[in-house]
UniProtKB/TrEMBL annotation:
Its EC number is 7.6.2.9. This is Carnitine transport ATP-binding protein OpuCA. The complex is composed of two ATP-binding proteins (OpuCA), two transmembrane proteins (OpuCB and OpuCD) and a solute-binding protein (OpuCC). InterPro entries: AAA+_ATPase, ABC_SmlMolc_Importer, ABC_transporter-like_ATP-bd, ABC_transporter-like_CS, Mo/tungstate-bd_C_term_dom, P-loop_NTPase, Transp-assoc_OB_typ2. Coiled coil: none annotated. The lineage of its organism: Bacteria, Bacillati, Bacillota, Bacilli, Bacillales. It comes from Sinobaca qinghaiensis.
């Protein structure tokens, strides 16, 4: 069943944490909510969970009205699962007891004792925790604890699974492994997931759709590829794809960076926002550096060099504007070098996606 937020606003006194949010999460969809701290993404999750109710607007889960300004279903009656950043495991319960708990305390699920045990075993197998069923939380690694939290959240087959930055407390290697684990669980369980994160890479890697938020509002919503390649606003461009925002002049689909008449970039697929603002979004991987002065490019000076393994990140100063460029590791520039900056031909042609 789908979940809908219709004209939802949430205020705390004079602070408007959410403003006129309209969003539908379809059955079985994996939606990631991204944005900086304070943008309202956790408030949105709390409203879906039933921990708060909206100041205006309404929330429906399936055909059920879950909340409006005057009333709200409590969390235990919403058929939701929740995975927290801190795991939130009970220290006195074994793994299988942690997972059994929702089945024993959710009155809407009428199951026999044997059926409950069978379901726990299924979820233990799904999350790869069968061999750890009798362990206590203190005997588990961080990744194993997160698997238990996931298992506990999905065991009762909730209509909606809410995840609040569940991987932020794990190290980089574990985060990568758990991303794959969550994707696998989503595929096999068919759960509808709303996943809150500040990590753009997590959202791009896992979600069917991304919702970018800023200042309590939805800035853009679309597929990961759509938002990455075709951002609708400067904020979406800089937050998700880390784009450089370059000033200049547009002439239809032709852009003259820094008002250089002899330098022009073609970009037929660009949001109207950028043309209205006379700016151009260029991702670090869309730009190339040439170690010679070229007439049809931007002259700049290397300010900073960072080796990143598969690429080198350069900070290039062009007319007192710092631009970030990801270059091939075979290129070797040093701070103080003069370079010419150009746009890649592949960026001009685009990749054949519709704008998000």
């Amino acid at each position: 069943m789908s979940t809908r937020l219709h004209s939802v606003t949430k205020s705390f006194g004079d602070l408007h944490a959410l403003q006129n949010i309209n969003l539908e999460v379809k059955e079985g969809e994996f939606v990631a909510i991204v944005g900086p701290s304070g943008c309202g993404k956790s408030t949105l999750l709390r409203l879906l969970a039933g921990f708060d109710r909206p100041t205006h607007g309404e929330i429906t889960i399936g055909e059920t009205m879950a909340a409006n300004a005057s009333e709200a279903l409590p969390p235990e009656k919403r058929s939701i699962g929740m995975v927290f950043q801190s795991f939130a495991l009970w220290p006195h319960m074994r793994v299988q007891e942690q997972i059994m708990f929702p089945l024993q305390h959710r009155s809407s699920k009428k199951m026999s004792k044997n059926d409950k045990q069978k379901r726990v075993e299924e979820v233990l197998s799904l999350t790869g925790m069968t061999a750890f069923a009798d362990r206590m939380p203190h005997q588990l690694s961080g990744g194993q604890k997160q698997r238990v939290a996931l298992a506990r959240a999905i065991v009762a087959s909730p209509s909606l699974l809410l995840m609040d930055e569940p991987l932020s407390s794990l190290d980089a290697e574990l985060r990568s492994a758990m991303r794959q684990e969550i994707q696998r669980i989503h595929k096999h369980s068919g759960a509808t997931i709303v996943y809150v994160t500040h990590d753009q890479e997590e959202a791009l890697a896992m979600a069917d759709r991304i919702v970018v938020m800023q200042n309590g509002q939805i800035e853009q919503a679309g597929t990961p590829r759509g938002i990455y390649y075709y951002p609708a606003t400067a904020f979406a461009a800089t937050f998700v794809s880390k784009a450089n925002i370059i000033p200049g002049v547009w002439n239809h689909s032709t852009f003259h960076p820094f008002n250089r008449s002899h330098t022009f970039w073609e970009k037929p697929k660009v949001a109207p926002f950028f043309q209205k603002k006379s700016i151009f979004p260029a991702r670090p991987d869309e730009l190339i550096l040439i170690g010679e002065v070229q007439k049809d490019g931007l002259q700049g000076v290397i300010k900073n060099v960072q080796f990143q393994g598969t690429y080198i990140q350069y900070t290039v100063s062009v007319e007192e504007t710092d631009l970030t460029v990801h270059a091939d590791i075979l290129q070797n520039f040093a701070p103080g070098d003069t370079v010419t900056l150009q746009l890649k031909e592949s960026s001009i042609k685009g990749i054949g996606l519709k704008q998000a």
